Amino acid sequence: MTRAEFIARLKDGLVGLPTTTATDIIADYETHFDDGLAAGRTEAEVAAALGDPVRLARELKAEAGIQRWHQEKNPSAAAGAVFAVLGLGAIDILILLPIAMGVVGTIFGFFIAAIALFIGGGVVMVAGPFAGFPGGPFAAILMGLGMMAGSVFIGALLTIVTIWLVNATVWYARLHYRLLKPALEPQAQAAVQSAPPAPGASA
């Protein structure tokens, strides 16, 4: 693979990342080629030492998604991190997808139930005192507040469980793939420098 082919495939794989981030990554790998060529390697040898550019792009995009998740901790960042990890192929989708769908469906159902409970508590607290609620207006207010507090507790518990599940997914992927950019670059640089020189070339 030539330098131009490697960089072109890497660029294609990085589509979706912020422009500045993708530009920095491309510049890093251009530097790897410069260093390898200066050491007497051919473009093909440097490209082989760096690895598959498509896989590198997936790993770097997964790293970006995971960093966003650690920084933001919101549903959008969680979905981005999970889909980025799934894009690596680190998890056997055919086996885990049915399980994941079941877990996600259950959590979503509980979230809907918590929202319904909160709304119901509000209705009881506001309308109960005027609708002849058993025990009188005070009991209606207490019941409504209790229902709303219970729904908030359920929502908080589900949020904790969701965060734990996303973190577990990321942890599992990191057992199989190099996801951190600081770890990727030194390994790539070492691979380029340790590759055998081209026949007749000076190291």
Topology:
Elements: H1 3-13, H2 19-38, H3 43-50, H4 53-72, H5 75-88, H6 93-127, H7 137-174, H8 181-194
Helix pairs in contact: 1-2, 1-4, 2-3, 2-8, 3-8, 4-5, 5-7, 6-7
Transmembrane segments: 77-101, 107-127, 139-166
Protein name: DUF1700 domain-containing protein
Pfam families: HAAS (PF22564)
Question: Can you describe what's shown?
Answer:
- The protein is mostly helical and 203 residues long.
- Helices cover 79% and strands 0% of the residues.
- The chain contains eight helices and no strands.
- It is rod-shaped and about 90 Å long.
- The chain starts with a helix and ends in a 9-residue tail after the last helix.
